[in-house]
Design goal:
Porin; 197 residues; single chain
Length: 197
């Protein structure tokens, strides 16, 4: 198991060096997204391309394609989960389970734990700590972690509330905790769907 540290790329499109727990520079992440066909590329520090993620679609549920060794290996799309997010990556059969509010995730393939992702404070900076249990999984795990980070910080400190506003056009308090507001809205939506038939 190796710990890798990723800087927040939500508002930054410059190259990002990914270091391990000993401060060794391991990978270089470059590119941008926000438009169709934009891509992020992951390189070794010697310049060898390991993996890429390419944006396939836009909107509140964007899709991305994952590439490794120049071959498309998977597709990931954003879910609209309420309190727990579950993301399935077709092609590699990874299941990502976590919470977009606090940015804690587990990456699974069947019963095998691939990685965990959580925010940490390292030398005064907020970074994401990615613990990967098999070094062969690191390139794709880094790209998936970058996607998750992008979704959770997409210009809003409360990404779940932002998604409710976009999806349902309702006003919800921007302050947290807002579990009461979320549960009330879910109850209203559930009630209105079943009573309208």
């Amino acid at each position: 198991m190796r710990k890798l540290y990723l800087r927040d790329r939500a508002t930054d499109s410059s190259a990002t060096v990914i270091c391990d727990q000993d401060g060794q520079q391991i990978y270089l992440l470059t590119g941008k997204w926000g438009f169709r066909h934009d891509a992020l590329s992951l390189y070794t520090m010697s310049g060898d391309l390991l993996a890429e993620v390419r944006q396939l679609s836009l909107g509140i549920t964007p899709k991305f394609a994952l590439y490794q060794n120049h071959q498309r290996v998977g597709t990931v799309g954003k879910s609209l989960g309420f309190l727990k997010e579950i993301v399935y990556i077709q092609g590699i059969s990874w299941l990502i389970v976590g919470n977009g509010i606090n940015n804690h995730y587990r990456f699974l393939q069947g019963s095998r734990l691939i990685a965990t992702l959580a925010p940490v404070d390292k030398t005064g900076l907020n970074v994401a700590e990615l613990k990967v249990y098999d070094q062969a999984d690191e390139p794709l795990a880094i790209l998936v972690a970058t996607i998750l980070n992008h979704w959770s910080h997409n210009g809003d400190k409360a990404p779940l509330i932002s998604r409710f506003r976009q999806r349902f056009g309702r006003k919800i308090s921007s302050t947290f905790p807002c579990n009461f507001a979320i549960h009330k809205l879910v109850d209203e939506l559930h009630h209105s769907r079943f009573n309208s038939h």
